Every structure is written in C-alpha cells, then in structure tokens.
Amino acid sequence: MSRVSRPSPPARASGHEVSELRALAERVPELAEAVSLQVELVTAERRIRSRLATPWIDAPDADLKARLAAGRPLVRFEDLAFDWPECRLLFRQVTDILRRHDAVDAADVDRLHEIGRDPRLPDVARQWFLRAPGIPAAEHPAADAAAPEMLDDVLGWALKPVLTRAADVLQQRLSLADWGAATCPVCGGAPEFGYITAAAGRLLACGRCHARWPFDQMACPFCPNRDRTRLTTFATQDGWYRVAACQVCERYLKMLDGRHATRPLLMPVDTIATLPLDAAAMQKGFR
To answer: Do 182 and 170 contact (CB within 8 A), yes or no?
Structure first.
C-alpha cells in the first residue's frame, strides 16, 4: 500500500485524559504515583502525535475488505509511515520517564538508550509488531531473550502515535462489525480493555493502536471457550467497571460498562482506574 500524508489534527483528547487522570488521583490517593507516571507518558506521546501527519492508506476499500475476510489485519508494518527521528525521540523520553518512576533499573536504561540510538531500531520494531497474536504464528520472529525487560513497553509507547493515527483513518473508512476475531482487525494486537455498550454488546479495544471492534459477549477473548458456565464476571460497587474472567485459560479482561458510566472509554485513564481490579482478579487466581 502506498501512502500520502494529510494535515494533522490536534492531539486527540489529551487534555481531557490528563484532567481525568488528575481527578482520579484526587479521588483515589493510593493511585497517585501510577497516575503521575501515566500523565507523563500520555503527555509525551500526544506531543509527538500532534507533530505527525495523518497517514492515508492509499488502497481500494475492496482490497482492505479482502484482507479482513481472509482473517488478516488491515495494516502490515511496511504500510506504516514511521517518522523514525520522532519515534527515537519518544523512545528515549519514555525510557527516561520509566526510570524517573523506578519502573526500570539503571542498567536497562543504558541498554534501552543503546537500542533507541541503534540504526537497527526499525528492525527491532518490526519484530515487535510481528509478534502480535493476530499475525500468523509462522510469521512471528523469535524473541530476543537478552532484550531489556521493558523493551516491549517502550516500543509500544514509541510507535503508538503512528499506530493510533492509522487506526483512526481505517475505522473511518471501513466497518469492523463482521471481524469476529478476538485480535485487533487493524494491527493484530491483543485486546487490552473492553467496553459494554448501552445495548449490552461488547467492544474490545486494542492495546497497541486503540482500535475498537465488536466481540461476542459470551466468549473468552483469549481462548476458544464459549461455555458461559465457565466464564466469571464481577463488578465494582458503582457498576462502572466489570471483569470478565475465563476459567479455562484463567485470563481476564477489564471493561467499562457504558450502561452505568457517564463518559466514554478513555484507555489511558481506565487502565489506571482499574488497577485495584487487577489485584482482585489475581487474588481469584486469574492472570
């Protein structure tokens, strides 16, 4: 696919997300440190995103629909117009933010900075992209056992501005309603969060590009289990959030319940607001 660039709109919802995060820290002081880290990451990512042109995937809709029909994500790594100087800058900034918040040790910081400066960073990023669960396993490159522990997280943030812009463009062009799979129809990533609609349907949200697509409410998004007797759900007292857990694969998904919440899903906010649910799910034996 070839690409042309169009003018970039302002960074999407960043001010609202930061305001919501700071309000969360005031309501739940024990989350203040996690909120502080997230605010820095979101601010750095949105600053880079605001400088990027919006990518335009110059391919006929029929070709894109054929990819979906074949069970393949819409974009390949080579379809994405990465501005590598900006990606390297964000890679370095994310590494430094994580270090300031003691999320990575000094030795790994040095190794991450080396990777960020290395001319082979695009190859490292491509390997990370191809290891997504929605890309056929035969195409997965072997993971580097010697890689720093936080490398995937840093790459995820460094590439997010381009991935989310591509997802925005494609979701405006194509309906993802018939996709059906649990992995992202745009980039092949895994679902990180869910959203229950007012009509009690469920959307999954990709952790890499933030694309959203419908998925069966009575199916596990991580394994083939569709036996509702082996699916467990529990909710917060205010009804805003729910956890859907599978007794077969022992994994869980957090969801914002749009039947009770007074705002739409904001993944940078809701992933932090639900950290206590992670602890509760793990206490129940889920991962």
So the answer is: no
Q: What is the DSSP string of 81-107?
A: ---HHHHHHHHHHHHHHHHHTTSS-HH
Q: Point out the least confidently predicted range of 44-58, 189-203, 208-222, 253-267.
A: 44-58
What is the Cα–Cα distance from 271 to 277, expressed in whole angstroms?
Answer: 10
User: Can you tell me the distance from the alpha carbon of 108 to that of 201, in angstroms, rounded to the nearest whole number?
Assistant: 42
pLDDT digits (tens, 9 = 90+) for 49-76: 999 887 777 788 999 999 999 999 999 9
pLDDT at 13 over 70: no
What is the distance between the alpha carbons of residues 241 and 234, in angstroms, rounded to a whole number? 9
Residue with tokens 């600053």: 47
Cβ neighbours, 10 Å, residue 188: 25
For the entire predicted model, the pTM comes to: 0.92
Interatomic CA distance for residues 210 and 17, integer angstroms: 14
Distance of CA 26 to the CA centre of its chain: 25
Neighbours of 219 (CB within 10 A): 19
Chain segment 233-243, per-residue pLDDT in tens: 999 999 999 99
Which helix (DSSP H) or strand (DSSP E) does residue 157 occupy? Answer: helix 151-173
Q: Strand ranges (DSSP E) for the chain?
A: 2-6, 54-58, 191-196, 202-206, 212-214, 231-235, 241-246, 252-257
11-15, 39-43, 80-84, 172-176: which has the highest mean pLDDT? Answer: 39-43
Strand partners, 195: 203, 256
